[in-house]
Amino acid sequence: MPGLVYRLVVEGELGPLYAAAFDEVAIEPLDGTMAIVGPITDQSHLQGLRERISRVGLKLVSVAPEPAR
User: Fold this and answer.
1) Helix ranges (DSSP H) in the chain
2) pTM reported for the whole predicted model
3) What domain range includes position 18?
4) Whether the Cβ atoms of residue 10 and residue 59 lie closer than 8 Å to each other
5) What is the Cα–Cα distance from 69 to 58, expressed in whole angstroms?
6) Mean pLDDT by 10-residue block, N- to C-terminus, for the chain (69 residues)?
7) DSSP for 7-69?
């Protein structure tokens, strides 16, 4: 069963050096923030993504599932 698609919004911008840490998701630049969007298979996958966000020095603004299409 595929996971839900989540949108994690962070402050600032993700430079190309750190973009590789998020290869499995889409990065969407917004006005002063960035959205990291992709399927999350389970809670440990979501926690791992949140830890990567922290390790590269980004501040997490919000985490929300995307509406079903």
Assistant:
1) 16-19, 43-55
2) 0.85
3) 4-65
4) yes
5) 29
6) 83 79 87 91 92 90 86
7) EEEEES---HHHHGGGTTSEEEE-SSEEEEEEEE-SHHHHHHHHHHHHHTTPPEEEEEEPPP-
Q: Which of 48, 58, 53, 52 is nearest to 13 (CA)?
A: 58
CATH (domain of 59)? 3.30.70.1560
Burial class (CB in 10 A: 0-12, 13-18, 19+), 55: exposed
Cβ–Cβ under 8 Å, residues 40 and 49:
yes
Question: Which residue is it, tokens 């590269």?
Answer: 56
